[in-house]
Amino acid sequence: MPRITLTDYSIKALSIPDGSQVEYWDMSLRTFGVRVAKGGSKTFVLKRGQQRFVLGRYPAVSLKEARAEAHRRLALKYFPSKSIRAHAAIQQYLNTWPRNK
Description:
Blueprint lengths: L2 E2 L3 H6 L8 E5 L5 E5 L5 E7 L2 E8 L4 H14 L9 H11 L5
Parallel strand pairs: 1-2
Antiparallel strand pairs: 2-3, 3-4, 4-5
């Protein structure tokens, strides 16, 4: 996992050498980085333990916005819980919905 200083210029220049995906981690905020996937799509990520949280895609979300969101989440200790599958969500909804009599 390479560590670089993330700037707009360095993000534009990022590429993947072998065609898979690579995560580049920021030198100033160690748990913040950019994932570069096949086709060159770039996604801002925040790492907590073994989990990765997506903060947005570059360039729709700027580096400044993503870094601010990373700082906010780390300060508030806000990390969304794992999502559940649609079927499980429907079952949970139906189990809590008041039954018509």
